[in-house]
Amino acid sequence: MRVELREQVTTIIAQIPCGRVTTYGCIAKMTDGATARSVGAVLRTLPQGHTLPWQRVVSAGGRLADHEGARRQRELLAAEGVLFDRRGRIPARFFWP
């Protein structure tokens, strides 16, 4: 991925407000050519100790992506006040923008 595109993705992620979420696809649409998959790749390759709010990026439909950090992601989002319905989805009112 081009450095400029990676910077766009990380800049958008940094702007997601506390207590809100957005999708990989939504972030991709805000860039000059990223895909939902490439947004995920950026998140997977963040350096140790980064400060980006990675937990605020979720799959389409308001579900957590199936990855190693999903449990931690759910804990972090719950601590920010994000709720999940009985089916594990995040209600639309928590979505940004």
From TrEMBL:
Protein's UniProt keywords contain DNA damage = yes
Tagged with keyword DNA damage: yes
| Domain spans labelled Methylated-DNA-[protein]-cysteine S-methyltransferase DNA binding | 5-82
Q: Give a Pfam family name.
A: DNA_binding_1
Query: What are the protein's UniProt keywords?
Result: DNA damage
Q: Entry's InterPro entries?
A: ATL_DNA_repair, MethylDNA_cys_MeTrfase_DNA-bd, MethylDNA_cys_MeTrfase_DNAb, WH-like_DNA-bd_sf
Task: Please identify the protein, giving its name as recorded.
Answer: MGMT family protein
